[in-house]
Amino acid sequence: MNYDAIELRSVSRSHGSGDSAVTALDQVSLSFPRATFTAVMGPSGSGKSTLLQCAAGLDRPTSGSVSVGGTELTRLSETRLTLLRRERIGFVFQAFNLLPALTAEQNVALPLRLAGKRVAKSRVREVLEQVGLGERARHRPTEMSGGQQQRVALARALITRPEVLFADEPTGALDSQTSREVLALLRSMVDREGQTIVMVTHDPVAASYADRVIFLVDGRVNGELIGPSADDIAARMTKLEAVPC
Ligand SMILES: Nc1ncnc2c1ncn2[C@@H]1O[C@H](COP(=O)(O)OP(=O)(O)OP(=O)(O)O)[C@@H](O)[C@H]1O
């Protein structure tokens, strides 16, 4: 069967209990087809991070189910879930989280080393070249710009050829020119390599690089835009943020 990269079925996630319970996600059903780039947007507290965490197997839904490439996460033990995350899911965050004592190539090789796998130098070079850093393999993070560091983080996320790359505000710490370069790189990973990407962002320009933008409000899907411009996205966000709580 040809499964979507990620599928969420009626996913709910609550925190706490009784009167103080908070519903961070409320019956969310979404599919993320392979080789597509999806942005997730919504007002602060609308459930974006919770959605990403549940979809990536970092958090468990209170009810509903999540599948990665047809594998149902909700049925896996913690050990199997950790293995699946390590082998089939990639992450990049606003903070680059590189190890300062290691060179770019050592940082990129780290996920394979941690998994006890053989590290082929040629594969490390290949991903560094994909992100345009073939010449910087021996540099340490302090010798690189913010954009270059985020590209190393991207190469590190891609070394295992993950089925899905989750990006949480990946350009939040970058200036607008550097952000555009990183976003163009994400776009080309989808178009050239068939990578599936799900990205949470507050930035309409960043979201406009995606094929589809999903809007969350109060833990529910409030609609989507397909191939929108940054202006369309900004207008929709302004409307959503104007809704009284
Ligand atoms: N561990 C937790 N305990 C209690 N409530 C939580 C917890 N994590 C999230 N929440 C609540 O769940 C809701 C959704 O939070 P979430 O962080 O997913 O929103 P978000 O859209 O990512 O917000 P932001 O854009 O501000 O980062 C919020 O009301 C938040 O306060």
From TrEMBL:
PROSITE patterns in the cross-refs: ABC_TRANSPORTER_1, ABC_TRANSPORTER_2
Gene Ontology terms for molecular function: ATP binding; ATP hydrolysis activity; transmembrane transporter activity
Keywords for this protein: ATP-binding, Nucleotide-binding, Transport
GO cellular component, one term: membrane protein complex
Stored SMART domains: AAA (SM00382)
InterPro entries per the UniProt record, alphabetical: AAA+_ATPase, ABC_transporter-like_ATP-bd, ABC_transporter-like_CS, ABC_transpr_LolD-like, MacB-like_ATP-bd, P-loop_NTPase
Protein name per UniProt: Ectoine/hydroxyectoine ABC transporter, ATP-binding protein
Organism from which the protein derives: Streptomyces sviceus (strain ATCC 29083 / DSM 924 / JCM 4929 / NBRC 13980 / NCIMB 11184 / NRRL 5439 / UC 5370)
